[in-house]
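How it folds:
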Amino acid sequence: MPVDFSSHRDGAYVCLRGHGDISDAELISAIRLMYSNEEATKLHKCALIDFSRGHPQHISSDSIREAAKLNITASKHMIPGAAVAIVVSQSLAYSLGRMWQAYADGTGWTTQVFQDLPEAENWLETRLFSQEADDAG
């Protein structure tokens, strides 16, 4: 599958990584997999959507809208204020990421679209450490 899902830090940090050509069905399937365990979804604080090695030119605006709806539904079960970083390498993918941001506005998440993976990872780490400090204090 061109989209892989992984979970880190006891479920607080999740990652979707796309590689090669990515279809509508593959994107939606990966998002559903990410939210398939409601108890695990409750632990999500940060998400990295890494399409820097993927080619989402086959993803339609309808699938972006469907992905946002799935995210909005899942956000009701997640820790408030989760952070999501989307990493893309192509201008079309950047536009799709910005479109998703608009559709997913109802999540209450802090979101950002990046073209540099290390920058996105640093941005998420900063937010994750900030949330952990808030939880401890």
In short: Helices lie at 24-34, 38-41, 61-75, 91-103, 117-136. The chain has a mean pLDDT of 88. The chain is about 45% helix and 30% strand. The two ends are 41 Å apart (CA to CA).
